[in-house]
Amino acid sequence: MPEAFQTAAATRLRGISLRQIRLGRRLVLLSYLISHFLNHALGNISIIAMGAGVASHAEFWQWPPIAVVFYGAAATHAGLGIWALFERRQFHHRAIEPLQLILGLSIPVLIVGPVVGMRLGYFGLLGLALLGRAVRSGVERRVGIISLSYGHDRIVRVPVGLSVLEASLRHRVPHASVRGGRARCSTCRIRIIGNTGALPAASARETYVPGRIGVGTDPSIRLACQLRPTADLSFVQLLTPHAMSANAHASGPSRIGSHIGDLNLALQHDLPDPLRFGIGIHSGEVIIGDIGYRDHLVFTALGDAVNVAARLQDMTKDLACEVIVSEDVCRTAGLVADQFPARQVTIRGRLEPMTVRAVADARMLSPLGAGTQL
User: Fold this and answer.
1) Predicted confidence (pLDDT) per residue in 39-75, tens digit
2) Angle at 91 between CA 87 and CA 95, to 5 degrees
């Protein structure tokens, strides 16, 4: 019985991931902060109430089992923060990532209390992490420099040890990335060109997310945030980086989309099913402009016509077609659309049904580009 219990306990311990550890220490620290702020809130009632709250707060968090959990969570938070500082070789050009790391590293200093010795030991560890980064950078330069080819005549040279994503950030090469290089998404994934036998083996952390979308078994597909090549490498990005500015529509022509057949052909090894699209076309008065603030501007359009076009787009799924054009558009443009079936559809938010034309294949609308009628 004891042996079986030990085996079960060992199995549970092996099943604990780093993500679960992070979640656990966040919950502990959050609970402490909520208790601390509630204690301060008692001061709005009276000094006596706040004094009683201080006693209860201290008694609970200084109870030995709770104290072990609390200081263990604080130490784990500090250790993971110091390791993240040492491990990360390159940050995004925006200030949000360094700011997030600095704020995270400041939590143990603020939460543990005015213990001078502990704070000095903590700052010493931060200094060692920074020193370690400098030593590692020198060692990497001595080990060697490798070339990374992006498959479009762009080649960068970086020291051995950087991930592909870190190399892109260092040389300001646009690269799709959503979760900051932590293997929590697959937007940074690349396809290796040539032999993959010389690449470092993918870790379980790297293969987890691609495995969920059905591409984890392809050795030529790797996550740029996790792959740290040791020799020259050539690859292509599988997802286009979102590098357009908010006012790109006014600075010149931009690629709004791709011919969908070519895109499906390029991604046939990455997608279980081909990409499909639906377009709703309606006309009317709208308000257009940039909405947002600073780096978060979005060019958009507002108005009833926009809402109707969005409803028509949603209907392409039910009507099994690629384009739905309202009869108002056909009439205003002087188009003869008798070759497309007319349908009466109900638009949410409108009392009367609307007549639309369903186009099964969007390529049938190509005469519009030549100025001819349908």
Assistant:
1) 888 888 888 888 888 888 888 888 888 888 888 888 8
2) 130
Q: Hey, what amino acid is at 44?
A: N
SS3 344: strand
Two tokens, residue 17: 């991931």
Q: Rounded CA gap, 304 and 282, in Å?
A: 10
User: How many helical (H) and strand (E) elements, i.e. helices and strands, does the chain have?
Assistant: 12, 11
d(CA 98, CA 42): 35
* Block residue for tokens 């780093």: 18
β-bridge partners, 299: 290
232 touches 146 (CB < 8 A)? yes
Cβ neighbours of residue 8 closer than 8 Å, sequence gap 6 or more: none
- Adjacent-strand bridge partners of 155: 149
Q: Is 6 helix (H, G, I), strand (E, B) or coil?
A: helix
pLDDT for the residue 77: 80
Measured CA to CA, the distance from residue 222 to residue 235 in angstroms comes to 10
CB atoms within 10 A of CB 371: 6
Query: Residue 299 has which token pair?
Result: 């060019």
Closest CA to 266 of 191, 174, 361: 191
Q: Hey, how many other C-beta atoms are within 10 angstroms of the C-beta on 325? A: 24
Average of per-residue pLDDT across 72-85: 79
Among positive and negative, which fits the CA dihedral 117, 119, 124, 125? positive
Rg of the chain taking only CA atoms, in angstroms: 29
Cα(236)–Cα(100) distance, integer angstroms: 30
E strands, the chain, are: 145-149, 155-159, 189-192, 221-223, 233-237, 279-281, 287-291, 298-302, 323-326, 342-345, 354-359
Helix (H) or strand (E) holding 208: helix 204-212
Residue type, position 261, single letter: G
3-state DSSP call for residue 247? Answer: coil
Return d(Cα 180, Cα 297) in angstroms, integer: 21
The structure's pTM equals 0.45
Measure the CA–CA gap between 339 and 358, rounded to whole angstroms.
10
- CB atoms inside a 10 Å sphere around CB 28: 19
The number of CA neighbours under 13 Å toward the Cβ of 275 is 15
Closest C-alpha to 106, from 75, 71, 76, 78? 78
